Amino acid sequence: MSLKYRSWASSEAARKVMSANRRRDTRPELAVRRLVHAAGLRYRVDSRPIPSLNRRADLVFSRARVAVFIDGCYWHGCPAHGTRAKVNGDYWLAKIQRNRDRDAETNRLLRAAGWVVLRAWEHELPHEVAARVVATVRGDSADEILEHQ
């Protein structure tokens, strides 16, 4: 194993598996995008809601100022489905905590700039996530949005 990968990958095979994880176009993201598009909404994909902020949302509705993030259970520490790595566990625990901290900061920064932030877990049903997105973008009342959660 190369010294370059020693900090996080326990083996060359592990490095290849982890490197193959997609940043965009994941199955849950595509399922939600299809449903939102079918509802007649148009959006930008894997885009910065605020150009000067180096954070990318999975779906961005610029006019409505809605940013949607579909978070992976492992990478973002889902309380229901997140797992602890068996190898190099301390590194991954710290990495996932940094991801969670960055997610919270992103939410705070976007909200301070007047954006609505929607976060969904990859395990959530796509039609339920899409319903929340559509209701939020169309400006439905809070009661209508809560019905979809």
Layout of helices and strands:
Blueprint: H1 12-19, H2 27-38, E1 44-47, E2 57-61, E3 66-71, H3 89-112, E4 116-121, H4 126-138, H5 142-147
Parallel strand pairs: 3-4
Antiparallel strand pairs: 1-2, 2-3
Helix pairs in contact: 2-4
Keywords:
149 residues; Endonuclease, Chain A; 5 helices; 4 strands
Describe it.
The chain is of the alpha+beta class and 149 residues long. The chain has a single domain (23-147), classed as Endonuclease, Chain A, CATH 3.40.960. It contains five helices and four strands, in the order ααβββαβαα. It has helices spanning 12-19, 27-38, 89-112, 126-138, 142-147, and strands at residues 44-47, 57-61, 66-71, 116-121. A four-stranded mixed sheet has the order 1-2-3-4, with helices on both faces. A hairpin with a 4-residue loop joins β2 (57-61) and β3 (66-71). The protein is globular and about 45 Å long. The N and C termini lie far apart (46 Å). Residues 142-149 have low confidence and may be disordered.
Low-confidence stretches: 142-149
Q: Characterize the main sheet.
A: 4 strands, mixed
Please bin the fraction of helical residues: 40-55%
What's the tally of helices? 5
The CATH superfamily is VSR Endonuclease
Order of helices and strands: HHEEEHEHH
Number of domains: 1
